[in-house]
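Illustration 12: G-protein coupled receptors family 1 profile domain-containing protein.
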Amino acid sequence: MNNDSITSCNWPVEPATNETLPGPDYYVKAILFPIILAINTVGNFLILVVLGTDKNKTSVHVYLISVACFDLSVVWLELYTYLPLVLPDQVKDETYLRNFINFYGAQTFWQYTSLQASNWTLIVFGLERLYATIRPLQFRTAMSIRRAIYLELVVVMLAVLSNLKYPISWYYALQHSPDLALRDLAAEAQYLTPGLLRWHNFQNEADIATQIGDWIAIFTINCCLLIVLRRHLKTRKTLFHAPESVPAASRGIHSSGSALRLVIACSALYVFTMALPITCNILRIAKEPPHCSYYITTKTLDLLSGLGTLSLLVNYSVGIFLYCLTWKRFRERIKSWVRLWFTLAAEHEQRSSSEMTVMENVSRSSVINETVNAMPPV
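Figure caption equivalent — predicted structure in token form:
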């Protein structure tokens, strides 16, 4: 946050900070982000492999594969802003700085698009599970893989349209800055036209409103799904004690229950992990003009923002654990893939060992033959 905005709000003057020393959020990001990146990469890769190779695909596979792709994009694009944090000397290089500035608009645009598409896919997935549980017969005739793909395309298109401001305003400001390089990422607004500036300010507040709306929607859907799951468990208990007349119905309820528990777990994770980032954004908006309604020190806000960013990234990284906890079929396929990989690795190691043994025997035989040939005749 710049000092002008603080002065215009008549907040207390904060003591000057040493820019050469790392801030309170530095150690949090520097240590935890590589761990989150590794979990995100391995976990979402396994999700894509397991679900992508499943022969019995449903609409659930469409949504979960899409979420895995979006989650990979969200965390890997954060790496672009993480590197200057841990490699500050690299940022001073003119070539790296130029590339960073040129790519920043596209990086921000696709990261926000992926984030929004992942959230909205979770909302669509939750609504589908709710509809599938309440009206199973109508759901079987109405939903299909093709329709799920169409819905996902609509979600991506809406996410793209809602974030067009980022590349347009950034590259317009970049082209109209004096040296064609925005040294300060916060200086973008001063190079915008009045129309783009209004769009810029509206987008900043719209992002907060969208985050709050997504959080409320997912929380509401999750509460409804919990109610449905409670009734679902009662139905299973009734069928379990009933005469042996509905085994197929019991299996159908069990299979739909896995997807229901999965979406409840994903929604609960979102509700808990996104609470802190949303709170930080609200505090930042409240501190800045024209609101000036709540004061919080920059040091505290930076620390909360760092924790909020990591909490947000956790939401898009630990899906693999939820899948294994709530989805028995997914666990079984993970085990089969792991066994297959270990078997192939063992066979490769055994084959390499056999080839090395053969080569050693051949080499030993050639040495013996050369020695025999070199001996003088008796």
